[in-house]
Amino acid sequence: MDELIGCEKAAGEKVSRNILVPLCGKSKDLVHLHGLGHNVVGCEGVEQACTEFFSENNIEYTRAPLEGVDGSIFSSADGRLRLYQCDFLALTAEIVSTKFDAVWDIQALVSINPRDRKQYVRTLRSLLADDFRYLLVTIEYEPFAHLGRPHSISYNAVKELFGSFSNVKFIAQLPAQAPWKSEWRENVFAMVGGVEDRVQYWQARWATGQSQWNSDKPHQYLVKYLDTLTAGSSNCKFFLPLCGKAGDLMYLYKEGHTVTGVEGVPFVVEQFFRENKLDYEKISMPEIKGWKFKTKDGRMCIYACDYFSLTPAMVGEVDAVYDRGALEAINVGDRPGYVKLMQQIIGKDFRYVLNAYEYDDSMFQGPPRNLPRDEVFNLFADFAEVDILEEADKSDEGADKFNLEWMVKVIYTIKPSQQ
Fold first, then answer.
1. Considering the entire predicted model, what is its pTM?
2. FRET pair for 237, CA 20 to 30 Å: which of 124, 179, 416, 419?
């Protein structure tokens, strides 16, 4: 509750908030929040549930038809408790005549069809004040363990839905309560207005052991297309974005190349140098809120910072880029900025190999995020030519890991435009 309501204004003075409870049914939470002095608005599609809620709780109410929407508004005598009996997706700020600074979402998100989730969040966002708080409880279970409501939603999917306009904080994971199965999990999130720190998510993944993408072996497509990247040179300057502690780094280093990487999580970079017994120095760089790690011979350098904090002067011109999955890992809205910075880093005769996945992102939002080929071609169109090296059907992997019906791996080669 403290996560939802926030701090007191002063000793003994409580905060009164405008709280939205979507898909509320006859929840006693409405009465509890109203009793704490808040202005509470619920939305429930079933008329009978609305009338029973007020009668069962002995609350006097009035009822009036909604203008422009099929439904009614039920209001308590003091006006601080209102139920909108209508389709939640039809709600607008004009209909409710307010902006909400708090949302109490207890499994509403998991009760709707997964295909409606984006519209659900768009509707919510249109109803929120700039400085809002949001408490969300979801259900998560193994793929195919259950069909129908409640629909499982992953930590990653919640981040994808809300991360563009809120700072998402994972609070707890608990065994699901009755009537749900005890082997299911209830995930609790607290969100506040603002954009999430891009690095925070990945730091949490590494810290909790959720770094399944990492391998100390060189990636198969790096080995396969190394000649494409080097163009026959035995001493290229490589750039590996969002590199983690991938085996690609040491593979290229041992091949005699100079390697520069960037990774947002400092302890991962430090682990890389220690685990590979490299003689290195660590330099604090306050201007990028990070660190520079480099070997004494100068051929391996990794910046521990947000990718977007890098500057071309720091990295210098690079000959080749191996993008193992960085472009598909970042937020979709960050992709143009990612490519713009990359354009400033690469040399005039660069070679670039990009890994990407394509799938139906109405079923899963990543990461890895869906990266359609049309978008790849458009992102690089101003300065480069893009060709497909190969495609591979990954539908079995997509079904097992992400509950997808189809999934395709696409490997691109990107080189300077000949125009």
1. 0.60
2. 419
